[in-house]
Design brief:
Blueprint (H helix, E strand, L loop, with lengths): L1 H23 L3 H33 L3 H28 L1 H8 L5 H14 L1 H18 L4 H4 L1 H20 L2 H21 L1 H5 L9 H29 L6 H36 L3 H38 L6 H14 L2 H17 L4 H20 L11 H46 L1
Length: about 450
């Protein structure tokens, strides 16, 4: 079900990028759109993943009768935070654009600021839909949450095609926000019966609500910083480079999403359940099998992407304002970005699994490596504006982080399994002793 929803999201995503390519190509206005909508895309994905990775295990480890009460308390807290984030984005839009698009000229800078302010409510709506999606996942309802990207893309396409003549680039922002609003309504409506079963007032500490989300948000922010640093560097590399990077990012994101989300989103509740009953050895074996499958698929996707990149980009986007020169530029940028398919998908899968196991320390440490490695490589290549090298630092960063997390987790795994298995046996003995006494 998750795979089908992502497939629909990818199909609509192709049309969204095709519409963008047709209307703005890789010209200067495309850079403004990329610098404005890129951070919102990144922020929304970070917020949505934070809600799912933190709320799903939290709710799965509680009795069904307690979930609605815990969800209500956590939901109110996160809603207030999301509204605050949306307001901050709107207020600080000029500073954000100056930071993330330092190479934009004054007109494009002002255009990007307006777009970012129009896009700010999408974070509130997207994060709100993720809160309800977490509750739907605990009820094994996967359809509505998996349609987030399809709603987002559908709204953007419809608004861009119908309002472009009158609103120009602003039509993309209006459609984006409308799509996220539709997704919020869908998840709210479909989770209403799960929210009505509030028969308990089970207490839950604020630390439990915010600890894991805070750590995962730090992890997601550092992974996102790797992408944002490259996009900022691209605005100095020449006209159209930021847009070319954004087209590549969309292609890479589609591949990573289809590799990652069906596997990771269905694994989270299962791993949390196994942790809850003390079967850590079984949880790790499940993770190992998933990583092996992810490794094979991601390598295959990377090889196919490199071999077919020029032909695929030409077929998908080369029309209207997107010329043959644009195809060549995006194809060259893709060449340096392709290895990120492997590192990004493997790193994210391992990290989500460790958060579900309530072992966030290693993923958080690993998350600092991509942007660090990326910045070091960008400093070395500061005077080389060849498109092939634009995303080399981003690719190298996630690859190094993936390797670190893989080997570090292997060194700590045996001890972790032993401790958890002993705890599970002690719990079993205590429970059986209690029953005998009774």
């Amino acid at each position: 079900m998750v795979g089908a929803g992502i497939l629909l999201g990818n199909v609509t995503g192709f049309f969204r990028v095709a519409v963008t390519a047709y209307l703005v190509g890789t010209h200067a206005r495309a850079d403004a759109l990329a610098v404005a909508i890129g951070p919102i895309d990144t922020l929304n994905q970070a917020v949505i993943n934070t809600m799912l990775v933190s709320l799903v295990p939290m709710l799965m480890l509680r009795p069904e009768s307690d979930r609605a009460a815990i969800f209500a308390r956590a939901g109110r807290a996160f809603t207030g935070i999301l509204i605050g984030i949306g307001i901050l984005v709107a207020i600080l839009a000029p500073q954000i654009i100056s930071l993330l698009g330092p190479g934009l000229d004054r007109d494009r800078h002002d255009e990007a600021v307006t777009l970012l302010r129009l896009l700010a409510p999408a974070t509130v709506f997207g994060g709100g839909s993720a809160i309800f999606a977490a509750l739907l996942y605990t009820g094994r309802r996967f359809v509505a949450p998996s349609l987030y990207q399809a709603c987002l893309n559908g709204g953007t396409i419809v608004a861009a095609l119908t309002l472009w003549k009158w609103l120009g680039l602003n039509s993309f922002a209006i459609g984006y926000v409308a799509g996220s609003c539709v997704q919020l309504f869908a998840t709210w409506w479909l989770s209403r019966d799960l929210r009505k079963s509030d028969r308990s007032r089970a207490p839950i500490a604020w630390k439990q609500i915010f600890a894991t989300p805070g750590l995962y948000l730090l992890y997601a922010a550092m992974i996102s910083a790797n992408i944002m640093a490259t996009r900022a560097f691209a605005t100095h590399a020449g006209t159209g480079m930021a847009a070319a990077f954004d087209y590549c990012l969309k292609c890479i994101s589609v591949l990573v999403a289809y590799l990652l989300y069906p596997l990771a989103n269905s694994l989270l509740p299962e791993i949390a359940r196994l942790r809850g009953i003390g079967k850590m050895g079984q949880a790790y074996r499940l993770i190992d099998k998933s990583l092996a499958l992810m490794g094979v698929l991601s390598v295959a996707a990377c090889v196919v992407g490199v071999l077919l990149r020029t032909r695929a980009i030409s077929l998908l986007f080369e029309r209207g304002s997107f010329t043959g020169e644009s195809t060549l530029l995006v194809s060259n940028v893709f060449l340096g970005f392709a290895p990120a398919i492997i590192g990004w998908s493997m790193l994210d899968l391992m990290s989500r699994c460790f958060f579900a196991l309530d072992r966030p320390r290693l993923p958080v440490i690993a998350s600092f490596l991509p942007v660090t490695v990326n910045l070091a490589i960008m400093l070395l290549l500061a005077h080389s504006h060849k498109p092939q090298f634009l995303a080399a630092g981003a690719s190298a960063g996630v690859t190094v982080a993936c390797a670190y997390l893989f080997f570090a987790s292997g060194l700590n795994r045996k001890t972790a399994v032993t401790i958890d298995d002993e705890a599970a046996r002690d719990f079993s003995l205590i429970s059986s002793g209690t029953k005998t006494a009774r």
